[in-house]
Design a protein that fits this description.
Layout lengths: L1 E4 L5 H11 L7 H8 L4 E8 L2 E11 L2 E9 L8 H15 L4 E7 L3 H9 L3 E5 L9 E7 L1
Parallel strand pairs: 4-5
Antiparallel strand pairs: 1-2, 2-3, 3-4, 5-7, 6-7
Length: about 140
């Protein structure tokens, strides 16, 4: 398994995963390509045998990094890919001089909440609106 900064060759897979796991974003191939070209947003791709099996995107605003999405294909879960993606995002935040990292997670996603807790993330609030009919929790930690 390899985690690297995502490039155009990961774009199709990231778009497909975004549409599947985060349909409320409405992100298209073009939207994600634009986001990849934005200096304040980084995408990371998890590869297994040359195939993209997961990704994370993190946005930087001032001293805060916001992990906006993190997804791993179901058949590749439990192999440390999510953990590796979180580490990569935290490392990027540190390199950018961020003092705080936040992320969103659906209230019913216990596996993700458990993963984030292992990295010291704590629930710090609730998003005012539901996404895709789900209550969204805000998790945060110092960088």
């Amino acid at each position: 398994m390899k985690i690297a900064r995502a490039t155009r060759r990961h774009l199709y897979s990231i778009t497909a995963m975004t549409r599947h796991f985060f349909p409320y974003t409405g992100f298209t191939f073009s939207t994600i390509l634009e986001r990849m070209q934005n200096e304040n947003i980084l995408y990371f791709a998890a590869e297994e045998n040359g195939h993209t099996v997961g990704f994370a995107d993190v946005e930087f605003r001032g001293k805060q990094a916001k992990i906006l999405g993190l997804a791993v294909l179901p058949e590749f879960r439990g192999k440390g890919i999510g953990r590796a993606l979180v580490k990569k995002c935290l490392s990027a935040a540190k390199k950018r001089g961020c003092s705080r990292v936040v992320m969103f997670v659906a209230e019913d996603n216990a596996a993700a909440q458990s993963l984030y807790a292992k990295f010291g993330f704590k629930k710090s609030g609730v998003l005012r609106r539901k996404l895709w009919g789900k209550k969204i929790l805000i998790y945060g930690r110092d960088a």
